[in-house]
Amino acid sequence: MTTMRGDQPTGQPVSQASDGSDEPWEARKNARDGRFSTLVFAGVLAAALGVTAVTLPVPYVVEAPGPTFNTLGEYSDKPVISVSGTEAFPTTGNLDLTTVYVDGGPNGPVSFIAALGAWLDNTKAVYPQELIYPDPVTSEESQAESAAAMVTSQENAVAAALSELGIDYSQQLQAAGLPEGSPSAGKLEPNDVFVSIDGKPITALSVVQDELAAKAGAEVSLVVDRDGVPTTVAITPTKNDAGRYLLGVSLQYLFTFPFDVSISLDKVGGPSAGMMFALGIIDTVTPGDLTGGKHIAGTGTISPDGAVGPIGGIAQKMHGARNGGATLFLAPAANCDETLGHVPDGLQVVRVENLADARSAVELAASGADTENLPACTSN
Fold first, then answer.
1. How far apart are CA 102 and CA 81, in angstroms?
2. Number of compact structural domains in the chain
3. What angle do CA 84, 87, 88 make, to 5 degrees?
């Protein structure tokens, strides 16, 4: 029996190497095994580096179509919009608010392969992280900011709806923030409630803006309610790059409405649902059926006077709207450029400047009339 040892087996002839040398078979085998091991190690290392490369986080943010929510429907077994203190009327159809999934930044890292896949997907968008989140922010801070923006948008939506319906309510302006070095720093305090400017009662932000423009940068006298005490301060506004005069204070509205409106949608943040909330409120508190059973979606911020403002991720929101079944989409006029070339098949996009435009478009669609002549998005 042949005995195996650490060298050539006994009784076996020496094989000749391919180059004619008398290299022992075992030595050549060891060399081949060494080369094979080296190749295997190199392959494993390359694979590991490849996996690492595609899973490494990259400084990008990916936006993708999110779900839609019908402001006339229910969420978690509760009406999205409910009112008390006034009559509510039955509604049908859909007035969908649209959302966007956001990965990256404070929402967690995006891998190279995820960013590449999103770049190749025409329903998604990839942005440098600093463009979306210019300042470092934690997930908790981002969520808190988004939730606060949602609350403000809901209050503005109620005000805009009541303004559109001609229902009276009262509003006041309150100081919310005072950046260091601003004209109001050291003069105004957070929670000061604006009463008058140069003797004119402040009933809306436009009163302040008009007076600052009329004084062309001269000092103004502002009366505020500070913890129940009237306080007069003199402020010299500053002029921004757009030529507007500013007090340098962040403001928020304090509203007093004739009835209560409750919006139950705790999984959505940000200000972009304001217009759709306002339309939903109008339909809820007025007789008749605003949508005529049609499936309509849209997006846009809303101000108390009904102006519709721009939002982010409109291309993704249009795809989300179509995925949800909408055939008509209400888009802020300021976002029209971004819709071009991104409108999914089967979706008509209507350009709106304000809540009155949006309401008219919905009413026309509800009537069954041809909507092709509604304002369309063209390049701005």
1. 26
2. 3
3. 85
Name the residue type at position 110: V
- Clarify whether residues 160 and 295 are in a common domain: yes
pLDDT per residue over 75-88, tens digit each? Answer: 999 999 999 999 99
Q: Which of 37, 57, 77 is the last residue of a domain?
A: 57
Q: If you write DSSP's letter for every residue of 190-201 in order, what string do you get?
A: TTPEEEEETTEE
In DSSP terms, 165 is beta-bridged to none
The CA–CA distances, whole Å, from 22 to 8, 13, 16, 19, 28 equal 13, 11, 5, 9, 11
- Structural domain harbouring 236: 170-256
Q: Are residues 163 and 266 in the same domain?
A: yes
Query: Cβ distance 333 to 351 under 8 Å?
Result: yes
pLDDT tens-digit map of 188-219: 999 999 999 999 999 888 899 999 999 999 99
Rounded to an integer, what distance in angstroms lies between the CA atom of residue 318 and that of residue 362?
A: 17
Q: Which amino acid is at 137?
A: V
Tokens 């509510």 belong to 88
Q: How far apart are the first and last CA of the chain?
A: 92
* Burial category of 253 from C-beta neighbours within 10 Å (exposed 0-12, middle 13-18, buried 19 and up): middle
Contact 366, 294 (CB under 8 A): yes
Does 7 reside within a domain? Answer: no
Residues 243 and 297 in one domain: no
The answer as to whether 267 is a domain residue is: yes
Same domain, 282 and 330: yes
In eight-state DSSP terms, residue 264 is: -
- Measured distance CA(223)–CA(198) in Å, rounded: 8
Asked if 97 and 75 sit in the same domain, the reply is: yes
Q: Coil, strand, or helix at residue 157?
A: helix
CATH number, domain containing residue 249:
2.30.42.10
Q: Give the span between the Cα atoms of 65 and 337, in whole angstroms.
A: 19
pLDDT tens, residue by residue, 230-283 = 999 999 999 998 889 999 999 989 999 999 999 998 878 889 999 999 999 999
